[in-house]
From TrEMBL:
<protein>
    <submittedName>
        <fullName>LysR family transcriptional regulator</fullName>
    </submittedName>
</protein>
<dbReference type="InterPro" id="IPR005119">
    <property type="entry name" value="LysR_subst-bd"/>
</dbReference>
<dbReference type="Pfam" id="PF00126">
    <property type="entry name" value="HTH_1"/>
</dbReference>
<comment type="similarity">
    <text>Belongs to the LysR transcriptional regulatory family.</text>
</comment>
<dbReference type="InterPro" id="IPR036390">
    <property type="entry name" value="WH_DNA-bd_sf"/>
</dbReference>
<dbReference type="InterPro" id="IPR036388">
    <property type="entry name" value="WH-like_DNA-bd_sf"/>
</dbReference>
<keyword id="KW-0238">DNA-binding</keyword>
<dbReference type="InterPro" id="IPR000847">
    <property type="entry name" value="LysR_HTH_N"/>
</dbReference>
<dbReference type="Pfam" id="PF03466">
    <property type="entry name" value="LysR_substrate"/>
</dbReference>
<keyword id="KW-0804">Transcription</keyword>
<keyword id="KW-0805">Transcription regulation</keyword>
<feature type="domain" description="HTH lysR-type">
    <location>
        <begin position="8"/>
        <end position="65"/>
    </location>
</feature>
Length: 312
């Protein structure tokens, strides 16, 4: 509902209250940081707007008329409500500025985010962070829906409707158990061989799957997968159990390759490098804690311990 044209603006009501409290237009003007002529003009304008005199003026000062006393009481309620609203808005802004909602792809969430969040905690100890994990297409959907302040995706490009910045680089590797025949071959696997082999893969919509399928497109596309699994942990378990060749991030298998529990299979003629991106809605630059976290991804912070997170 629109306000009546007879309702003065908040600043005029604050001036009227000051005059009633101090007994002088001049003293009220000084308190509010305006000139006396400007204050007098504002009072007269308010009287014209309301349609009744509000002040009785004399050499000793100014005091409210009978109608003015009523308006003063009503104005006091309005100004107090406005002050309460202002305090509430400040509280909301403070809560927003100490809260950060992040949604990240599994690779980023498990192997990079712990170090970034530790650095953010050290820089801004009061920031409360909520981290969700999802595959890259779902990350984009959450950010577009406003469910997250910042997202992190894997893949070949920035999803539609979002802007982004590359924050890290990653490489996909093909790994097998030491007993697999590919672990003993001397020549690299070719793109044609890899495309024709049923692999253990992430589910559609994941950045890992997207990058591999794009790389294999010129060889006729990937064969139907032997298994589709929804996390790097599950992929590694499948590889260790001998389920067949697995394609996943090298970040996920550093320990297994170093200890010989898995073997990396060289692949010839295939580019499996990919960028990892922070993303946010187009036209909305990250602010507050989101901006701080984005800045921390550009510096060398310690990588946190591996944390397995269920896909949400």
């Amino acid at each position: 509902m629109a306000l009546s044209p007879h309702v003065p603006e908040l600043g005029a009501l604050e001036l009227l209250l000051a005059v009633a409290r101090l007994g002088s237009v001049g003293r009220a003007a000084a308190e509010l940081g305006v000139s006396q002529p400007a204050a007098s003009a504002r009072i007269k304008g308010m009287e014209r707007q309301i349609g009744v005199p509000l002040l009785e003026r004399s050499p000793r000062g100014s005091r409210p008329t009978e109608a003015g006393r009523l308006v003063v009481e009503w104005a006091r309620n309005v100004v107090e409500a406005a002050q309460a609203l202002d305090a509430g808005i400040d509280a909301l802004r403070g809560k927003r500025d100490t809260r950060l909602r992040v949604v990240a792809s599994l690779t980023v969430a498990e192997y990079l985010m712990p170090g970034w969040l530790l650095a953010l905690h050290q820089a801004s100890p009061g920031t409360a962070v909520t981290l969700r994990t999802a595959n890259s297409s779902d990350v984009a959907a959450h950010v577009l829906a406003g469910d997250a302040d910042l997202g992190f995706v894997e893949g070949t490009g920035t999803p539609a409707g979002l802007e982004g910045a590359v924050v890290a680089a990653d490489t996909l590797v093909v790994v097998v158990a030491p007993e697999h025949r590919w672990a003993r071959r001397r020549a690299p696997v070719t793109g044609e061989e890899l495309a024709a082999t049923p692999l253990v893969l992430r589910e559609p919509g994941s950045g890992t799957r997207e990058v591999l399928e794009e790389a294999l497109a010129r060889f006729g596309g990937a064969a139907a997968p032997r298994l589709e699994l929804a996390s790097s942990t599950a992929l590694k378990a499948a590889a260790l159990a001998g389920a067949g060749p697995v394609c996943l991030s090298e970040l996920a298998v550093t320990e297994e390759l170093a200890t010989g529990r898995l073997v990396a299979v060289p692949v010839a003629g295939l580019d499996l490098h990919r960028p990892l991106r922070a993303v946010w809605p187009s036209g909305q630059r990250p602010v507050g804690p989101a901006r701080a976290l984005l800045g921390l991804t550009r510096v060398d912070v310690p990588r946190g311990p591996r944390r397995s997170s269920p896909r949400s």
